[in-house]
Amino acid sequence: MSRLVLLLIALLLPSGLSAQSAAPPSTDTLRIPRGVPVERVAAGTDTTLHYAVYVPTAPAAAHLPVLLVMDPRGRALLPLGLVRRAAERYGFLVLSSYDTLSDDPTALDRNTRALTAMLVDAQVRFGADPARLYLVGFSGTAQFALAVASQLDGHLAGIVGVGGGLRPSSSLVIPALRVARPFAYMGIAGRTDFNYDGARELDRALDDTPLPHRFVVPDGPHAWPPEAVVYDAVEWLHLQAVRAGLVPRDDRWVDSLRTAHLAEAQALDAAGRPVNAQRRYREVAADFEGLGGAPIATHRRDSLAADRRTRRAEARQNALAERVAAYTVTVGTFAADYRRAPDPPSHAAALRQLEIERLRRMEGADDPDESAAAQRMLATVYAVVAFYEPRDHMERRDYARAAGLLRLAVTLRPDDPFVCLDLARAEAQQGHTPEALEALTCAIDAGAASRAALATDPLLAPLYSDPAFDALLARAPLTPPGQTP
Known about the structure:
Layout: H1 2-11, H2 13-18, E1 38-42, E2 50-54, E3 66-70, H3 77-90, E4 93-97, H4 107-124, E5 133-138, H5 140-149, E6 156-162, E7 184-188, H6 196-206, E8 213-216, H7 227-243, H8 251-270, H9 274-287, H10 295-306, H11 308-340, H12 347-353, H13 356-363, H14 368-395, H15 399-412, H16 417-429, H17 433-445, H18 451-455, H19 467-473
Parallel strand pairs: 3-4, 3-5, 5-6, 6-7, 7-8
Antiparallel strand pairs: 1-2, 2-4
Helix pairs in contact: 3-7, 8-9, 9-10, 11-14, 13-14, 14-15, 15-16, 16-17, 17-19
């Protein structure tokens, strides 16, 4: 990975830097209109790679800053839709890859190839500003963004990392914290995201670095955040570019943003959330340093930091974070024992070992922090029993163990169509036709797969001769979910 990115920098970026005074390449040759998302463009260096692109209507500069967007499932249009409005407002070029992914042995190589292709095209095809490269990633691709940050030192202006969860002690993070030119880092993690606690810890560690940083916690699970949150993230990146002197300063805009950001902190303060309010005041004070300051934020930040109520609330949050960390170890131990045991535990025994009943009681607590911590623990075990461990067992054709874990996942979330589909596959491979058909009914009713995909799925082949399978197949959608004929 390092060799590829370093080669890119050695061969490409110097020419890009020297070309800043020249006119950028015209997008007319690519037939890419301004202000309209273009769904699919083949990369110039490798036509097997593709990305979606958005060129703003009225760019503020000849050489545009560029958001290089990486979804962990290669869903290029999903994050492109989230960043589009902010990109239009602040003049960002956007390239969003169809080829990035996480949770796969090939992810590192594929992400490197995809990012390299977008970096080359951003320069050669679009004349992007080589001093203002921004990476936007979710989950494993947010972690990848941090992993390559040091290789783009001097050119990387910022990262938006959604649900990354890497802790500051990670070997992927440490080089990023030692860059010569600090980049702005916006961390985002939902309150019930199983990666929330790692993201929170990373943000706290950044206090001791020169990296401008902010941590946003929307309500919700491990997912791309709402469009409004993404808009604020891109706007914050633009503010950091103003602070760094990379773009001209507009005092009226800075003043309006200061007022809005201060109001956010004051709302948390008024709601009796001293830790969150103190954090937000700290961010506001840092963000407007050198731009007229924010004395109200500075004063209230210091007052809250000295308040015993804040310290008690923070100690409570830290204790909950420790409980989440301990439970993560419990889940890892359960998965390892389940993998090795000659006879895996029964469904009821597994639920007891994973303390599901206790967590559900905790989830209903009146304390919002306690409830959110329980939801993060449940999300952690769900990710393990619904995806990571069953995938491994399926690859090894241990369908009985895979089915046992998937039944746990169905107990936790009965309406997940992809878990239902995997359970149908595992049951079919064991010759459990009634159970497989029941799980397949759940998958089809939720639109997990198209009719053609189900009819050619080799793991469902044991069901093909059953008339009930044909009846279910007739209910399946003709086209893959999310697509039109």
